[in-house]
Amino acid sequence: MKEDEKPKSFEASLEALEQIVHQLENGDLPLEKSLELFEDGIRLSRQCQERLNQAERRIEILLRDNQGRPAVNAFEEARSISDNGPTDS
Questions:
Q1: Which residues have C-beta within 8 Å of that of residue 66, sequence separation ≥ 6?
Q2: What three-state secondary structure class fits 7?
Q3: Which of these, 45, 36, 39, lies nearest to 13 by C-alpha position?
Q4: Mind listing the pLDDT tens digit of every residue in the chain (89 residues)?
Q5: What's 26's DSSP letter?
Q6: Which of 3, 25, 33, 50 could cross-link with 29 by S-S, CB 3.0 to 4.6 Å?
Q7: Where are the beta strands (DSSP E) in 1-89?
């Protein structure tokens, strides 16, 4: 992918990364092609990680209470309820 191309969505980047990993795992590529794919994979991996970091920061902002403090406890409670099912049995 060229530097001047429009960035892909997270899902498209992840799919492209999975394809690169699959091609590299096959092991039947010339060295130069393998290096090119590896470089593309590293770039895509960094893009995906940055997008995940941005999403995490957005979620942290959305979960703050009235005073701007993180409301992590409420999120943990919601997650444990969804993991274990409702507790009103």
A1: none
A2: coil
A3: 45
A4: 444 456 689 999 999 999 999 999 998 999 999 999 999 999 999 999 999 999 998 988 888 777 777 666 544 555 555 555 555 54
A5: H
A6: 33
A7: none
